[in-house]
Design goal:
InterPro entries: ATP-NAD_kinase_N, Diacylglycerol_kinase_cat_dom, Lipid_Phosphate_FormReg, NAD/diacylglycerol_kinase_sf. The protein has 209 residues and is of the alpha/beta class. It has 7 helices and 8 strands. The strands form 3 sheets. The protein has a 4-stranded parallel beta sheet with strand order 2-1-3-4, sandwiched between helices. Strands 5-8 form a two-stranded antiparallel sheet. Helix 3 links the parallel strand 3 and strand 4.
Length: 209
């Protein structure tokens, strides 16, 4: 059903840097009209979401809404899983707190996968409607240690290197997704390593609006 209280995680510098404006002019008034209370937490620095998640009491809200892109979703998801199950997260279970994302980042693939479009108003209306959808939760471990978790895309090796270097060139905005992968593939010396990859399938889900 419709949520009564939400915590808002807002990334003001992602994408077109319009997350704050979209919340103030569109999402906030609509949430208020729907009778939904909101507590807004704004990221002020690199990895600030991790600290905000660690300090927040999620039992006080019905769900969380992220105004950002795939990077914000990944950071908050990893912080929440580690807060709930410890640093290694050896046997992840579904998270009790539903998560939604409003596409205000540079890369909004996760939001598009959820709603079918990269449209802020569509995502906001889905949140107000309160529909819960199960989503797969993925993790990568190496040497017995957890590297990362994701509910969007996860990789190890070349693709991870491409994304790492792409994130380093954020000044290129969306252009970096075309330029940096081409540079990595054609001109940068590739790292070589021996690896044995195994995977386990667990029917665990992460619930989102």
């Amino acid at each position: 059903g419709k949520p009564r209280k939400l915590v808002i995680f807002l990334n003001p510098i992602g994408g077109k840097q319009n997350a704050r404006s979209i919340y103030q002019k569109t999402a906030g008034p609509l949430f208020e009209l729907a009778g939904i209370l909101c507590e807004v937490l704004v990221s002020e620095r690199h990895r600030h979401f991790t600290d905000l998640v660690a300090a927040f009491d999620f039992s006080s809200v019905d769900g969380m809404v992220i105004f950002g892109g795939d990077g914000s979703v990944c950071e908050i998801l990893n912080a929440l899983m580690r807060k709930t199950y410890g640093q290694e997260v050896k046997d992840p279970k579904p998270i009790d707190i539903p998560m939604a994302v409003i596409p205000t980042g540079t890369g909004n693939g996760f939001s598009e996968g959820l709603y079918g479009v990269q449209n802020e108003l569509t995502a906001i209306l889905h949140v107000i409607n309160g529909t819960i959808l199960p989503q797969p939760l993925m993790s990568v471990h190496s040497g017995g240690s957890l590297l990362s978790m994701s509910c969007c895309v996860i990789a190890y090796g070349l693709f991870s290197d491409v994304m790492y270097h792409t994130d380093k060139q954020r000044w290129l905005k969306k252009l970096r997704y075309a330029v940096v992968p081409l540079w990595v593939m054609l001109w940068k010396k590739q790292r070589l390593f021996n690896a044995r990859v195994t995977y386990k399938v667990r029917y665990r889900t992460h619930c989102l609006f």
